[in-house]
Amino acid sequence: AGAAGLGAARVDVLVMGGDAGAEGDASAAAKLPGVDKVVTLSHSALSSPVQPETGAAALAALAASGGYSHVVCASTSWGKGLLPRAAALAGVQPVTDVVRFDEGGDAFVRPIYAGNALETVRYAQGAVPEGQPKYISVRTTAFEAVPAEGGAAGVEAAAGPAELEAAAEEQASEFVSAETSAGERPDLGTASVVVSGGRGLKSGDNFHLVEELADALGGAAVGASRAAVDAGFCANDMQVGQTGKIVAPDLYVAVGISGAIQHVAGMKDSKVVVAINKDGEAPIFEVADYGLKADLFEAVPELAEKVKAARA
Ligand SMILES: Cc1cc2nc3c(=O)[nH]c(=O)nc-3n(C[C@H](O)[C@H](O)[C@H](O)COP(=O)(O)OP(=O)(O)OC[C@H]3O[C@@H](n4cnc5c(N)ncnc54)[C@H](O)[C@@H]3O)c2cc1C
User: Fold this and answer.
1) Ligand 1 centroid to residue 192 C-alpha, Å
2) In which residues is FAD bound (predicted)?
3) Is 93 annotated as a binding residue?
């Protein structure tokens, strides 16, 4: 999606991996409309999940030898580990968290001050060494996703660059295990409806109110404010905000959340915001399209019932 605003003449997707899983990813990438070529790189040092040290060495080498103008990566936890490393190897300052491309891809718009301002930056003349691409990470929530089908790109295997071999030998860290919360709810970052709970819920025992409203809305994703996470009401991977996840769903419902700037930084691009708060002066109402000044312990169960009835 990020490549769309770049006005790129050609879009190649790099799929790195050390196992069969990468083949599935490569054929999925080949079906994305707008992709010209999928370049695969298989190497035992790139076994899933690709470690940033080896991944960056491979990416930087392939990006330089392929004559690319830009390397674009999603600003996810993984991308944040990979892209700056690759950029450093290339001697290029990365531009991170881009939300819009201007001037046909020469100017990059990105949030600063926890999303309270947008800055537009451009690479100065000579800032990118000859033969190196610009390194950009994008906030995926700021771009429309392309459909999963419709393209028919070719898939080409790349030879493992010498830099990857060297990085694999020097590799100082090793992947041990990943603990993921395998919930049934959609992923917060991509869900079309998100219901978040805050400190107003008073305790973790009351968090079910938020979950029930999310269920009534057809199985929405559930998020939280940092105060709710810090108080142990819910898991910390549910935090929305400056230091949590950035979400931009079609509908965001904030329950018992005051609307601190650090929280708003993570949800202000939501298309419709609904806030339920008993304090009519709460700043969340400034970003809300619909505000309900009410006690959440009464309003949320009632709303869940009414939504359920309306959808039945
Ligand atoms: C560097 C930094 C980074 C941060 N990053 C984040 C972040 O990523 N995400 C984040 O969320 N915060 C973040 N914060 C914290 C942020 O500043 C706020 O402290 C936090 O968002 C407050 O959470 P809250 O709205 O749930 O709690 P509060 O501010 O305590 O608000 C609770 C709200 O619930 C309402 N309420 C209480 N009882 C009821 C009731 N019965 N019915 C209805 N409403 C009720 C109250 O009126 C109040 O508005 C960060 C702070 C710092 C300094």
Assistant:
1) 23
2) 199, 225-226, 239-243, 256-263, 277
3) no
